[in-house]
Amino acid sequence: MALLELRDVEARYGPVRALGGVSLAVEQGQIVAVLGANGAGKTTTLRSISGTVKRSGQILFEGRPLGRRGPESIARLGVAHVPEGRGTFAEMSVEENLKLGAYVRRGSVDGDIARVSEYFPWIATRLSQHAGTLSGGEQQMLALARALMSHPRMLLLDEPSLGLAPLVTREIFRIVSELNEKEGLTVLVVEQNAAIALEVASYAYVLEVGKVAVSGPSEELARNENVRKSYLGY
Protein backbone atom coordinates (compact mmCIF):
# COMPACT_ATOMS: atom_id res chain seq x y z
CA MET A 1 0.00 0.00 0.00
CA ALA A 2 1.34 3.43 -0.94
CA LEU A 3 1.95 5.94 1.85
CA LEU A 4 0.31 8.60 -0.34
CA GLU A 5 -2.01 8.15 -3.28
CA LEU A 6 -3.86 10.66 -5.46
CA ARG A 7 -6.78 9.45 -7.58
CA ASP A 8 -8.14 11.77 -10.27
CA VAL A 9 -7.51 14.90 -8.22
CA GLU A 10 -8.83 18.15 -9.66
CA ALA A 11 -8.26 21.66 -8.30
CA ARG A 12 -9.32 25.15 -9.32
CA TYR A 13 -8.46 28.75 -8.56
CA GLY A 14 -11.83 30.35 -9.14
CA PRO A 15 -12.87 29.53 -12.73
CA VAL A 16 -9.35 28.39 -13.69
CA ARG A 17 -8.76 24.64 -13.54
CA ALA A 18 -5.19 23.99 -12.36
CA LEU A 19 -5.40 20.19 -12.09
CA GLY A 20 -7.47 18.08 -14.46
CA GLY A 21 -7.38 14.63 -12.87
CA VAL A 22 -3.93 13.86 -11.43
CA SER A 23 -3.22 10.35 -10.19
CA LEU A 24 0.06 9.39 -8.55
CA ALA A 25 1.45 7.26 -5.74
CA VAL A 26 4.38 7.53 -3.35
CA GLU A 27 5.66 4.46 -1.53
CA GLN A 28 7.02 4.58 2.02
CA GLY A 29 10.71 5.57 1.94
CA GLN A 30 10.68 6.84 -1.67
CA ILE A 31 11.79 10.13 -3.12
CA VAL A 32 9.38 10.97 -5.94
CA ALA A 33 9.72 14.00 -8.21
CA VAL A 34 6.97 15.99 -9.90
CA LEU A 35 8.32 17.79 -12.96
CA GLY A 36 6.97 20.06 -15.67
CA ALA A 37 6.93 23.59 -17.04
CA ASN A 38 5.58 26.64 -15.23
CA GLY A 39 1.81 26.43 -14.98
CA ALA A 40 1.74 22.64 -15.35
CA GLY A 41 0.12 22.17 -11.92
CA LYS A 42 3.13 21.08 -9.86
CA THR A 43 2.67 23.46 -6.94
CA THR A 44 -1.10 22.93 -6.96
CA THR A 45 -0.52 19.20 -6.59
CA LEU A 46 1.34 19.78 -3.32
CA ARG A 47 -1.24 22.31 -2.15
CA SER A 48 -3.99 19.77 -2.81
CA ILE A 49 -2.22 17.26 -0.58
CA SER A 50 -1.59 19.71 2.26
CA GLY A 51 -5.15 21.06 2.15
CA THR A 52 -4.33 24.62 1.13
CA VAL A 53 -6.43 24.60 -2.03
CA LYS A 54 -9.91 23.26 -2.72
CA ARG A 55 -9.78 19.94 -4.53
CA SER A 56 -11.93 17.05 -5.64
CA GLY A 57 -11.07 13.45 -6.34
CA GLN A 58 -9.48 11.27 -3.70
CA ILE A 59 -6.28 11.67 -1.70
CA LEU A 60 -5.29 8.81 0.59
CA PHE A 61 -2.61 8.84 3.29
CA GLU A 62 -1.75 5.41 4.68
CA GLY A 63 -4.80 4.13 2.82
CA ARG A 64 -7.20 6.54 4.52
CA PRO A 65 -8.99 9.32 2.62
CA LEU A 66 -8.01 12.83 3.67
CA GLY A 67 -11.46 14.08 2.76
CA ARG A 68 -11.93 17.75 3.60
CA ARG A 69 -9.20 17.95 6.23
CA GLY A 70 -7.50 21.33 6.52
CA PRO A 71 -3.77 22.11 6.65
CA GLU A 72 -3.33 21.73 10.42
CA SER A 73 -5.14 18.40 10.52
CA ILE A 74 -3.04 17.08 7.64
CA ALA A 75 0.16 18.33 9.31
CA ARG A 76 -0.79 16.39 12.45
CA LEU A 77 -0.98 13.22 10.35
CA GLY A 78 2.73 13.66 9.60
CA VAL A 79 2.77 15.64 6.35
CA ALA A 80 5.17 18.61 6.33
CA HIS A 81 4.94 21.12 3.47
CA VAL A 82 7.89 23.38 2.59
CA PRO A 83 6.26 25.88 0.21
CA GLU A 84 7.75 27.63 -2.79
CA GLY A 85 9.46 30.81 -1.63
CA ARG A 86 10.57 29.20 1.66
CA GLY A 87 8.02 30.92 3.92
CA THR A 88 10.38 31.75 6.78
CA PHE A 89 9.28 34.37 9.31
CA ALA A 90 11.79 37.12 8.62
CA GLU A 91 11.34 39.10 11.86
CA MET A 92 11.69 36.01 14.03
CA SER A 93 14.93 34.33 15.04
CA VAL A 94 16.22 31.08 13.61
CA GLU A 95 15.32 29.36 16.89
CA GLU A 96 11.79 30.78 16.91
CA ASN A 97 11.27 29.60 13.32
CA LEU A 98 12.38 26.11 14.31
CA LYS A 99 10.09 26.01 17.35
CA LEU A 100 7.14 26.98 15.17
CA GLY A 101 7.83 23.86 13.12
CA ALA A 102 7.16 21.73 16.20
CA TYR A 103 3.78 23.25 17.06
CA VAL A 104 1.82 20.18 15.94
CA ARG A 105 3.42 17.93 18.54
CA ARG A 106 4.16 17.93 22.26
CA GLY A 107 7.36 17.71 24.24
CA SER A 108 10.73 19.42 24.42
CA VAL A 109 12.23 20.68 21.18
CA ASP A 110 15.82 21.14 22.36
CA GLY A 111 16.83 17.66 21.26
CA ASP A 112 15.24 18.22 17.88
CA ILE A 113 17.12 21.48 17.34
CA ALA A 114 20.33 19.56 18.03
CA ARG A 115 19.19 16.84 15.60
CA VAL A 116 18.47 19.20 12.68
CA SER A 117 21.74 21.01 13.40
CA GLU A 118 23.55 17.79 12.50
CA TYR A 119 22.27 18.27 8.94
CA PHE A 120 22.66 22.07 8.99
CA PRO A 121 25.67 22.75 11.29
CA TRP A 122 25.50 26.55 10.90
CA ILE A 123 22.14 26.60 12.70
CA ALA A 124 23.64 25.72 16.09
CA THR A 125 25.70 28.92 16.22
CA ARG A 126 23.09 31.28 14.79
CA LEU A 127 19.91 30.50 16.69
CA SER A 128 19.42 34.11 17.77
CA GLN A 129 19.89 35.57 14.27
CA HIS A 130 16.83 37.01 12.52
CA ALA A 131 15.75 34.74 9.68
CA GLY A 132 15.39 37.72 7.34
CA THR A 133 19.13 38.37 7.49
CA LEU A 134 20.04 34.90 6.23
CA SER A 135 21.12 34.26 2.66
CA GLY A 136 18.62 32.72 0.26
CA GLY A 137 20.24 29.31 0.58
CA GLU A 138 20.25 29.51 4.38
CA GLN A 139 16.58 30.49 4.40
CA GLN A 140 15.75 27.46 2.25
CA MET A 141 17.72 25.24 4.63
CA LEU A 142 15.93 26.80 7.61
CA ALA A 143 12.56 26.11 5.99
CA LEU A 144 13.58 22.48 5.52
CA ALA A 145 14.91 22.24 9.09
CA ARG A 146 11.68 23.76 10.42
CA ALA A 147 9.66 21.09 8.60
CA LEU A 148 11.82 18.37 10.15
CA MET A 149 10.97 19.64 13.64
CA SER A 150 7.50 18.11 13.31
CA HIS A 151 8.93 14.59 12.82
CA PRO A 152 7.10 14.19 9.49
CA ARG A 153 6.21 10.91 7.86
CA MET A 154 6.24 12.69 4.50
CA LEU A 155 7.93 15.85 3.27
CA LEU A 156 6.37 17.95 0.50
CA LEU A 157 9.13 20.09 -0.98
CA ASP A 158 8.19 22.80 -3.49
CA GLU A 159 10.88 24.20 -5.83
CA PRO A 160 13.80 24.07 -3.37
CA SER A 161 16.24 25.32 -6.04
CA LEU A 162 14.26 28.49 -6.82
CA GLY A 163 16.60 31.48 -6.96
CA LEU A 164 19.60 29.58 -5.60
CA ALA A 165 23.09 29.08 -6.98
CA PRO A 166 23.81 25.61 -8.42
CA LEU A 167 26.24 24.69 -5.60
CA VAL A 168 23.64 25.58 -2.95
CA THR A 169 20.98 23.63 -4.82
CA ARG A 170 23.19 20.54 -4.91
CA GLU A 171 23.86 20.83 -1.17
CA ILE A 172 20.14 21.00 -0.39
CA PHE A 173 19.40 17.94 -2.53
CA ARG A 174 22.35 16.13 -0.91
CA ILE A 175 20.79 16.75 2.50
CA VAL A 176 17.38 15.57 1.28
CA SER A 177 18.99 12.35 0.01
CA GLU A 178 20.78 11.90 3.33
CA LEU A 179 17.53 12.32 5.27
CA ASN A 180 15.92 9.72 3.04
CA GLU A 181 18.79 7.25 3.48
CA LYS A 182 19.40 7.73 7.22
CA GLU A 183 15.88 8.34 8.51
CA GLY A 184 13.73 6.78 5.81
CA LEU A 185 11.99 10.10 5.19
CA THR A 186 9.50 9.90 2.31
CA VAL A 187 9.74 12.92 -0.01
CA LEU A 188 7.54 14.29 -2.78
CA VAL A 189 9.51 17.08 -4.46
CA VAL A 190 8.33 19.55 -7.08
CA GLU A 191 11.24 20.88 -9.10
CA GLN A 192 11.92 22.70 -12.36
CA ASN A 193 15.55 21.59 -12.40
CA ALA A 194 14.68 18.18 -13.82
CA ALA A 195 18.26 16.95 -14.09
CA ILE A 196 19.05 17.19 -10.38
CA ALA A 197 15.57 16.00 -9.33
CA LEU A 198 15.95 12.85 -11.42
CA GLU A 199 19.34 12.20 -9.81
CA VAL A 200 17.88 11.94 -6.31
CA ALA A 201 14.38 10.59 -7.02
CA SER A 202 13.62 6.95 -7.75
CA TYR A 203 10.42 7.72 -9.63
CA ALA A 204 9.01 10.80 -11.38
CA TYR A 205 5.79 12.19 -12.80
CA VAL A 206 5.81 14.83 -15.53
CA LEU A 207 2.80 17.16 -15.57
CA GLU A 208 1.49 19.04 -18.57
CA VAL A 209 -1.49 21.45 -18.30
CA GLY A 210 -2.72 19.86 -15.08
CA LYS A 211 -2.43 16.21 -16.06
CA VAL A 212 0.21 13.49 -15.85
CA ALA A 213 1.79 13.34 -19.30
CA VAL A 214 4.35 10.64 -18.56
CA SER A 215 5.72 8.80 -15.53
CA GLY A 216 8.26 6.14 -14.74
CA PRO A 217 11.51 5.28 -12.96
CA SER A 218 13.81 8.30 -12.92
CA GLU A 219 16.63 6.53 -14.72
CA GLU A 220 14.33 5.63 -17.61
CA LEU A 221 13.00 9.17 -17.97
CA ALA A 222 16.51 10.62 -17.84
CA ARG A 223 17.62 8.30 -20.67
CA ASN A 224 14.56 8.93 -22.86
CA GLU A 225 15.55 11.61 -25.36
CA ASN A 226 11.95 12.33 -26.43
CA VAL A 227 10.87 12.86 -22.84
CA ARG A 228 13.87 15.09 -22.13
CA LYS A 229 13.29 17.31 -25.14
CA SER A 230 9.50 17.46 -24.93
CA TYR A 231 8.96 17.81 -21.20
CA LEU A 232 12.18 18.30 -19.28
CA GLY A 233 13.90 21.01 -21.31
CA TYR A 234 17.39 19.56 -21.52
Q: Helix and strand succession?
A: EEEHEEHEHHHEHEHEEHH
- Which strand order does the major sheet show? 6-7-8-3-9-10
Beta strand %: 25-35%
Main sheet record: 6 strands, mixed
Q: Give the CA-based shape.
A: globular
Distance between the first and last residues' Cα: 34 Å
Helix content: 25-40%
Give the strand tally. Answer: 10
Radius of gyration: 17 Å
Q: What is the averaged pLDDT score?
A: 92
In the predicted model, the low-confidence regions spanning at least 5 consecutive residues are none
Count of individual helical segments:
9
Task: Quickly give the structural class.
Answer: alpha/beta
Task: Give your account of this protein's structure.
With 234 residues, the protein is of the alpha/beta class. It is built from 9 helices and 10 strands. It has helices spanning 42-50, 71-76, 94-101, 110-119, 136-148, 166-183, 194-200, 218-223, 225-232; strands at 4-13, 16-26, 31-35, 55-61, 64-65, 79-82, 154-158, 186-190, 203-208, 211-217. The model has no long low-confidence stretch (mean pLDDT 92).
Summarize the entry for a quick read.
With 234 residues, this protein is an alpha/beta fold. It is 36% helix and 26% strand. It has a 6-stranded mixed β-sheet, with helices on both faces.
What is the strand and helix layout of this fold?
Elements: E1 4-13, E2 16-26, E3 31-35, H1 42-50, E4 55-61, E5 64-65, H2 71-76, E6 79-82, H3 94-101, H4 110-119, H5 136-148, E7 154-158, H6 166-183, E8 186-190, H7 194-200, E9 203-208, E10 211-217, H8 218-223, H9 225-232
Parallel strand pairs: 3-8, 3-9, 6-7, 7-8
Antiparallel strand pairs: 1-2, 1-4, 4-5, 9-10
Helix pairs in contact: 3-5
